[in-house]
């Protein structure tokens, strides 16, 4: 964290505004591209549509101005600096509903998962994590060995992973297996 007027690097940006207007959104996007730090937004009012725009702009915490005591601002900034997020309960519910809708209506119909992996890729990675080799995975999934190798190659190339163990580790950290 850095105090206003400081010349050192900042860990978190705090942005106070009445509403999330086009100008405010533009400023937040510039902050995101130039500083690449989390943003705490303190608006007088915010609605569902504004929340999604704010999240796209690297806002990790929303603290309504009416609740913005010095102690709450301090706690929120510390949470943002440590990689956490803070949202009012109602906005968190909206965000979770939107996330669920996106998975159900946008990603799943195209065979995608929020991790960026297809169901087939997830199945191959799960079997790899159980210690199965290419031939065993092919038998278990009713695929050719070549098809299994293509799946593994596709995952490692697309996600910039070094090898099979790295791919399994990625899937474990992402929570998909």
Automatic annotation (TrEMBL):
Keywords: DNA-binding, Transcription, Transcription regulation
UniProt keyword annotation of Transcription regulation present: yes
Domain (HTH luxR-type) ranges: 110-175
Keyword Mitochondrion set for record: no
Taxonomy, superkingdom: Bacteria
PANTHER family in UniProt: DNA-BINDING TRANSCRIPTIONAL ACTIVATOR DEVR_DOSR
Protein name, UniProt field: Response regulator transcription factor
